[in-house]
Amino acid sequence: MTIIRQILSWFVVPDLRNFGTISRLMLACVTALLLFPLVSGSSESYLDQLYMHAAWVAPTLLAILIKGYLFGISMPHLYESKYIVLIVHLSNLLLFTLIDYVLLGERPNFWQHFFLFNIFSLSYMYIEAARRYSLVPSLSEARLSALTARIRPHFLFNSLNAAISLIRLRPYDAETLLENLANLFRAQLRDGSQSSTLGQEIEWAQEYIAIEQIRMGHTRVQVMWQHHAPDDAETPHLLLQPLLENAVFHGIESTHRPGCISVLTTRQKHWIYLRVENPYVPTESEENAKPHKGNSMALHNLRERLSLMYDNDAQIKSRQFDGIFRVDIRLPYRKKSSDMKKLFG
Protein backbone atom coordinates (compact mmCIF):
# COMPACT_ATOMS: atom_id res chain seq x y z
CA MET A 1 0.00 0.00 0.00
CA THR A 2 2.85 2.39 0.82
CA ILE A 3 4.43 1.87 -2.61
CA ILE A 4 1.07 2.49 -4.30
CA ARG A 5 0.63 5.76 -2.36
CA GLN A 6 4.12 6.90 -3.33
CA ILE A 7 3.40 6.22 -7.01
CA LEU A 8 0.02 7.96 -6.80
CA SER A 9 1.71 11.05 -5.31
CA TRP A 10 3.32 11.63 -8.72
CA PHE A 11 -0.12 12.35 -10.21
CA VAL A 12 -2.85 14.88 -9.46
CA VAL A 13 -6.50 14.82 -10.47
CA PRO A 14 -7.36 18.04 -12.33
CA ASP A 15 -10.18 20.13 -10.89
CA LEU A 16 -12.80 20.02 -13.65
CA ARG A 17 -14.89 22.68 -11.91
CA ASN A 18 -12.25 25.21 -12.93
CA PHE A 19 -12.43 26.92 -16.31
CA GLY A 20 -8.65 27.32 -16.52
CA THR A 21 -8.13 23.60 -15.93
CA ILE A 22 -10.76 22.70 -18.54
CA SER A 23 -9.10 25.02 -21.05
CA ARG A 24 -5.69 23.42 -20.49
CA LEU A 25 -7.19 19.93 -20.75
CA MET A 26 -8.96 20.70 -24.03
CA LEU A 27 -5.82 22.27 -25.47
CA ALA A 28 -3.81 19.19 -24.46
CA CYS A 29 -6.45 16.92 -26.06
CA VAL A 30 -6.37 18.84 -29.33
CA THR A 31 -2.56 18.66 -29.37
CA ALA A 32 -2.60 14.91 -28.64
CA LEU A 33 -5.28 14.38 -31.28
CA LEU A 34 -3.05 16.02 -33.89
CA LEU A 35 -0.15 13.77 -32.83
CA PHE A 36 -2.03 10.46 -32.65
CA PRO A 37 -1.97 9.83 -36.44
CA LEU A 38 1.80 10.34 -36.46
CA VAL A 39 2.40 7.50 -33.98
CA SER A 40 -0.31 5.07 -35.11
CA GLY A 41 1.72 3.61 -38.00
CA SER A 42 -1.37 3.31 -40.21
CA SER A 43 -1.17 3.55 -44.00
CA GLU A 44 -4.28 5.73 -44.20
CA SER A 45 -4.03 9.45 -44.87
CA TYR A 46 -3.41 11.90 -42.02
CA LEU A 47 -6.87 13.52 -42.30
CA ASP A 48 -8.65 10.15 -42.31
CA GLN A 49 -6.78 9.07 -39.20
CA LEU A 50 -7.49 12.44 -37.57
CA TYR A 51 -11.21 11.98 -38.17
CA MET A 52 -11.17 8.39 -36.88
CA HIS A 53 -9.41 9.37 -33.65
CA ALA A 54 -11.65 12.40 -33.15
CA ALA A 55 -14.68 10.09 -33.35
CA TRP A 56 -13.73 8.41 -30.05
CA VAL A 57 -11.70 11.17 -28.37
CA ALA A 58 -14.45 13.84 -28.52
CA PRO A 59 -17.27 11.85 -26.81
CA THR A 60 -14.85 10.38 -24.28
CA LEU A 61 -13.55 13.84 -23.35
CA LEU A 62 -17.09 15.22 -23.08
CA ALA A 63 -18.18 12.35 -20.81
CA ILE A 64 -15.12 12.79 -18.56
CA LEU A 65 -15.67 16.56 -18.30
CA ILE A 66 -19.33 16.10 -17.32
CA LYS A 67 -18.47 13.34 -14.83
CA GLY A 68 -15.63 15.36 -13.28
CA TYR A 69 -17.75 18.48 -12.92
CA LEU A 70 -20.73 16.66 -11.38
CA PHE A 71 -18.55 14.71 -8.94
CA GLY A 72 -16.70 17.88 -7.96
CA ILE A 73 -19.97 19.69 -7.24
CA SER A 74 -21.85 16.88 -5.48
CA MET A 75 -18.99 15.07 -3.66
CA PRO A 76 -16.03 17.45 -3.16
CA HIS A 77 -14.87 15.49 -0.08
CA LEU A 78 -14.18 12.48 -2.33
CA TYR A 79 -11.19 14.32 -3.81
CA GLU A 80 -9.48 14.28 -0.40
CA SER A 81 -9.11 10.49 -0.54
CA LYS A 82 -5.56 9.12 -0.70
CA TYR A 83 -6.55 6.97 -3.68
CA ILE A 84 -8.45 9.61 -5.63
CA VAL A 85 -6.03 9.33 -8.58
CA LEU A 86 -6.66 5.59 -8.85
CA ILE A 87 -10.43 6.02 -8.42
CA VAL A 88 -10.67 8.73 -11.08
CA HIS A 89 -8.41 6.94 -13.55
CA LEU A 90 -10.37 3.68 -13.27
CA SER A 91 -13.69 5.51 -13.64
CA ASN A 92 -12.32 7.31 -16.73
CA LEU A 93 -11.23 3.95 -18.16
CA LEU A 94 -14.74 2.63 -17.60
CA LEU A 95 -16.22 5.57 -19.49
CA PHE A 96 -13.70 5.12 -22.29
CA THR A 97 -14.53 1.40 -22.59
CA LEU A 98 -18.29 2.02 -22.65
CA ILE A 99 -17.93 4.64 -25.39
CA ASP A 100 -15.20 3.09 -27.53
CA TYR A 101 -15.97 -0.63 -27.22
CA VAL A 102 -19.71 -0.71 -26.54
CA LEU A 103 -21.27 2.37 -28.15
CA LEU A 104 -18.90 2.94 -31.08
CA GLY A 105 -17.99 -0.74 -31.56
CA GLU A 106 -14.30 0.02 -32.19
CA ARG A 107 -13.29 -3.57 -31.39
CA PRO A 108 -10.48 -3.93 -34.01
CA ASN A 109 -8.78 -0.71 -32.78
CA PHE A 110 -9.79 -0.95 -29.13
CA TRP A 111 -6.40 -1.88 -27.71
CA GLN A 112 -4.65 0.82 -29.72
CA HIS A 113 -7.12 3.38 -28.38
CA PHE A 114 -6.76 1.89 -24.89
CA PHE A 115 -2.98 2.40 -25.00
CA LEU A 116 -3.27 5.98 -26.30
CA PHE A 117 -5.91 6.87 -23.72
CA ASN A 118 -3.80 5.61 -20.81
CA ILE A 119 -0.67 7.35 -22.03
CA PHE A 120 -2.48 10.67 -22.41
CA SER A 121 -4.44 10.42 -19.14
CA LEU A 122 -1.44 9.53 -16.96
CA SER A 123 0.79 12.05 -18.73
CA TYR A 124 -1.69 14.86 -18.17
CA MET A 125 -2.13 14.04 -14.47
CA TYR A 126 1.65 13.90 -14.10
CA ILE A 127 2.06 17.31 -15.80
CA GLU A 128 -0.73 18.76 -13.65
CA ALA A 129 1.07 17.51 -10.53
CA ALA A 130 4.32 19.10 -11.71
CA ARG A 131 2.48 22.38 -12.36
CA ARG A 132 0.98 22.43 -8.87
CA TYR A 133 4.27 21.54 -7.21
CA SER A 134 5.91 24.42 -9.08
CA LEU A 135 3.43 26.76 -7.34
CA VAL A 136 4.41 25.61 -3.85
CA PRO A 137 7.14 28.28 -3.35
CA SER A 138 4.73 31.03 -4.47
CA LEU A 139 2.02 29.64 -2.21
CA SER A 140 4.38 29.57 0.79
CA GLU A 141 5.49 33.13 0.08
CA ALA A 142 1.89 34.27 -0.23
CA ARG A 143 1.00 32.63 3.10
CA LEU A 144 3.93 34.33 4.83
CA SER A 145 3.12 37.72 3.30
CA ALA A 146 -0.53 37.39 4.22
CA LEU A 147 0.34 36.39 7.79
CA THR A 148 2.70 39.34 8.33
CA ALA A 149 0.24 41.79 6.78
CA ARG A 150 -2.94 40.64 8.48
CA ILE A 151 -2.89 42.70 11.69
CA ARG A 152 -1.37 46.17 11.63
CA PRO A 153 0.55 46.93 14.84
CA HIS A 154 -1.24 50.25 15.35
CA PHE A 155 -4.62 48.44 15.37
CA LEU A 156 -3.42 45.98 18.00
CA PHE A 157 -1.91 48.64 20.27
CA ASN A 158 -4.87 51.01 19.90
CA SER A 159 -7.31 48.18 20.64
CA LEU A 160 -5.44 47.15 23.78
CA ASN A 161 -5.21 50.78 24.94
CA ALA A 162 -8.93 51.19 24.31
CA ALA A 163 -9.66 48.05 26.35
CA ILE A 164 -7.53 49.34 29.24
CA SER A 165 -9.30 52.70 29.26
CA LEU A 166 -12.72 51.00 29.23
CA ILE A 167 -12.14 48.48 32.00
CA ARG A 168 -13.40 50.77 34.79
CA LEU A 169 -15.96 52.89 32.95
CA ARG A 170 -17.41 50.33 30.51
CA PRO A 171 -16.28 46.85 31.55
CA TYR A 172 -18.76 45.11 29.22
CA ASP A 173 -17.38 46.92 26.17
CA ALA A 174 -13.84 46.13 27.28
CA GLU A 175 -14.68 42.44 27.63
CA THR A 176 -16.39 42.38 24.21
CA LEU A 177 -13.42 44.10 22.59
CA LEU A 178 -10.91 41.63 24.06
CA GLU A 179 -13.07 38.62 23.13
CA ASN A 180 -13.39 39.79 19.52
CA LEU A 181 -9.67 40.56 19.38
CA ALA A 182 -8.86 37.05 20.65
CA ASN A 183 -11.18 35.50 18.04
CA LEU A 184 -9.50 37.49 15.27
CA PHE A 185 -6.03 36.41 16.33
CA ARG A 186 -7.18 32.81 16.64
CA ALA A 187 -8.50 32.99 13.08
CA GLN A 188 -5.33 34.62 11.77
CA LEU A 189 -3.05 32.03 13.34
CA ARG A 190 -4.80 29.23 11.46
CA ASP A 191 -3.10 27.62 8.51
CA GLY A 192 -3.49 30.05 5.62
CA SER A 193 -3.86 27.15 3.17
CA GLN A 194 -7.20 26.17 4.74
CA SER A 195 -10.35 27.41 3.09
CA SER A 196 -13.21 29.04 4.94
CA THR A 197 -16.89 29.74 4.40
CA LEU A 198 -18.53 33.03 3.53
CA GLY A 199 -20.60 32.86 6.70
CA GLN A 200 -17.47 32.52 8.83
CA GLU A 201 -15.79 35.36 6.93
CA ILE A 202 -18.79 37.62 7.60
CA GLU A 203 -18.64 36.71 11.30
CA TRP A 204 -14.93 37.54 11.58
CA ALA A 205 -15.46 40.79 9.65
CA GLN A 206 -18.29 41.81 12.01
CA GLU A 207 -16.11 41.07 15.04
CA TYR A 208 -13.39 43.28 13.58
CA ILE A 209 -15.87 46.11 12.92
CA ALA A 210 -17.23 45.77 16.48
CA ILE A 211 -13.71 46.39 17.79
CA GLU A 212 -13.29 49.50 15.65
CA GLN A 213 -16.73 50.81 16.65
CA ILE A 214 -15.87 50.44 20.35
CA ARG A 215 -12.48 52.04 19.77
CA MET A 216 -13.57 54.98 17.56
CA GLY A 217 -17.31 55.16 18.18
CA HIS A 218 -20.39 53.73 16.48
CA THR A 219 -21.23 57.06 14.85
CA ARG A 220 -17.82 57.37 13.24
CA VAL A 221 -17.50 53.80 11.93
CA GLN A 222 -20.70 52.76 10.18
CA VAL A 223 -21.15 49.61 8.10
CA MET A 224 -24.03 48.72 5.82
CA TRP A 225 -24.26 44.94 5.45
CA GLN A 226 -26.14 43.41 2.50
CA HIS A 227 -25.43 39.69 2.77
CA HIS A 228 -27.44 37.75 0.18
CA ALA A 229 -25.02 34.93 -0.70
CA PRO A 230 -25.06 31.39 0.81
CA ASP A 231 -23.17 31.03 4.09
CA ASP A 232 -21.76 27.65 3.01
CA ALA A 233 -19.91 29.12 0.00
CA GLU A 234 -16.23 28.19 0.08
CA THR A 235 -13.82 31.16 0.24
CA PRO A 236 -10.12 31.68 0.90
CA HIS A 237 -9.19 32.01 4.55
CA LEU A 238 -9.51 35.61 5.81
CA LEU A 239 -11.03 37.08 2.69
CA LEU A 240 -13.03 40.01 4.08
CA GLN A 241 -11.28 41.14 7.28
CA PRO A 242 -8.14 42.54 5.56
CA LEU A 243 -10.34 44.44 3.10
CA LEU A 244 -12.38 45.98 5.92
CA GLU A 245 -9.19 46.81 7.83
CA ASN A 246 -7.97 48.66 4.73
CA ALA A 247 -11.34 50.41 4.44
CA VAL A 248 -11.22 51.63 8.05
CA PHE A 249 -7.53 52.50 7.99
CA HIS A 250 -7.52 54.43 4.69
CA GLY A 251 -11.13 55.53 4.36
CA ILE A 252 -12.25 56.54 7.85
CA GLU A 253 -9.39 56.79 10.34
CA SER A 254 -7.33 59.00 8.02
CA THR A 255 -10.12 61.57 7.53
CA HIS A 256 -10.95 62.19 11.22
CA ARG A 257 -14.65 62.22 10.39
CA PRO A 258 -17.51 59.69 10.24
CA GLY A 259 -17.65 57.33 7.28
CA CYS A 260 -19.80 54.47 6.02
CA ILE A 261 -18.47 51.21 4.63
CA SER A 262 -20.70 49.10 2.39
CA VAL A 263 -20.37 45.30 2.18
CA LEU A 264 -22.45 43.48 -0.42
CA THR A 265 -22.51 39.74 -1.15
CA THR A 266 -24.69 38.11 -3.78
CA ARG A 267 -24.97 34.86 -5.71
CA GLN A 268 -25.72 34.71 -9.41
CA LYS A 269 -25.98 31.18 -10.79
CA HIS A 270 -22.57 29.55 -10.20
CA TRP A 271 -20.80 32.71 -9.01
CA ILE A 272 -20.40 34.56 -5.73
CA TYR A 273 -19.94 38.34 -5.94
CA LEU A 274 -18.51 40.47 -3.11
CA ARG A 275 -18.20 44.25 -3.06
CA VAL A 276 -16.57 46.45 -0.40
CA GLU A 277 -16.87 50.23 -0.67
CA ASN A 278 -15.39 52.88 1.60
CA PRO A 279 -14.84 56.65 1.50
CA TYR A 280 -11.76 57.69 -0.45
CA VAL A 281 -9.86 60.91 0.16
CA PRO A 282 -7.27 61.77 -2.50
CA THR A 283 -3.94 62.97 -1.19
CA GLU A 284 -4.24 66.37 -2.83
CA SER A 285 -7.67 67.20 -1.32
CA GLU A 286 -8.70 68.43 2.13
CA GLU A 287 -5.97 69.99 4.21
CA ASN A 288 -7.28 68.47 7.44
CA ALA A 289 -7.34 64.95 6.03
CA LYS A 290 -4.25 62.85 6.48
CA PRO A 291 -4.64 59.86 4.21
CA HIS A 292 -2.24 57.05 4.94
CA LYS A 293 0.06 56.27 2.07
CA GLY A 294 -0.66 52.61 2.40
CA ASN A 295 0.58 50.06 -0.06
CA SER A 296 -1.57 47.59 -1.93
CA MET A 297 -0.14 44.60 -0.05
CA ALA A 298 -3.53 43.33 1.12
CA LEU A 299 -5.00 43.46 -2.40
CA HIS A 300 -1.84 41.99 -3.93
CA ASN A 301 -1.78 39.09 -1.44
CA LEU A 302 -5.48 38.43 -1.93
CA ARG A 303 -5.12 38.50 -5.72
CA GLU A 304 -2.26 35.97 -5.50
CA ARG A 305 -4.17 33.68 -3.14
CA LEU A 306 -7.26 33.78 -5.38
CA SER A 307 -5.11 32.89 -8.38
CA LEU A 308 -3.50 29.97 -6.57
CA MET A 309 -6.82 28.67 -5.24
CA TYR A 310 -9.12 29.21 -8.25
CA ASP A 311 -6.76 29.68 -11.20
CA ASN A 312 -8.53 31.93 -13.75
CA ASP A 313 -12.01 31.49 -12.27
CA ALA A 314 -11.67 34.19 -9.60
CA GLN A 315 -11.41 37.91 -10.28
CA ILE A 316 -10.61 40.92 -8.11
CA LYS A 317 -10.87 44.51 -9.30
CA SER A 318 -10.46 47.83 -7.51
CA ARG A 319 -11.18 51.39 -8.61
CA GLN A 320 -11.71 54.90 -7.27
CA PHE A 321 -14.56 57.22 -8.30
CA ASP A 322 -16.56 60.10 -6.80
CA GLY A 323 -14.90 59.86 -3.39
CA ILE A 324 -15.43 56.07 -3.18
CA PHE A 325 -12.91 53.23 -3.23
CA ARG A 326 -14.47 49.98 -4.44
CA VAL A 327 -13.20 46.40 -4.44
CA ASP A 328 -15.14 43.79 -6.46
CA ILE A 329 -14.47 40.07 -6.13
CA ARG A 330 -15.93 37.18 -8.10
CA LEU A 331 -15.58 33.58 -6.91
CA PRO A 332 -16.98 30.31 -8.24
CA TYR A 333 -19.74 29.04 -5.95
CA ARG A 334 -18.61 25.85 -4.27
CA LYS A 335 -20.16 24.42 -1.14
CA LYS A 336 -17.68 23.89 1.64
CA SER A 337 -17.62 20.18 2.54
CA SER A 338 -18.30 19.58 6.21
CA ASP A 339 -15.97 17.80 8.62
CA MET A 340 -18.57 15.08 9.14
CA LYS A 341 -18.47 14.26 5.43
CA LYS A 342 -14.69 14.02 5.61
CA LEU A 343 -14.92 11.57 8.51
CA PHE A 344 -17.46 9.27 6.92
CA GLY A 345 -16.77 9.97 3.22
TrEMBL record:
Record field: transmembrane: 51-71, 83-104, 110-127
InterPro entries, alphabetized: Bact_2-comp_sensor_kinase, HATPase_C_sf, Sig_transdc_His_kin_internal
The Signal transduction histidine kinase internal region domain, residue ranges: 142-218
GO cellular component: membrane
A Pfam family this chain is assigned to: His_kinase
Alphabetically ordered keywords of this record: Membrane, Transmembrane, Transmembrane helix
GO molecular function, one term: phosphorelay sensor kinase activity
PANTHER family: SENSOR HISTIDINE KINASE YPDA
Protein name, as recorded: Inner membrane protein ypdA
Organism phylogeny: Bacteria, Pseudomonadati, Pseudomonadota, Betaproteobacteria, Neisseriales
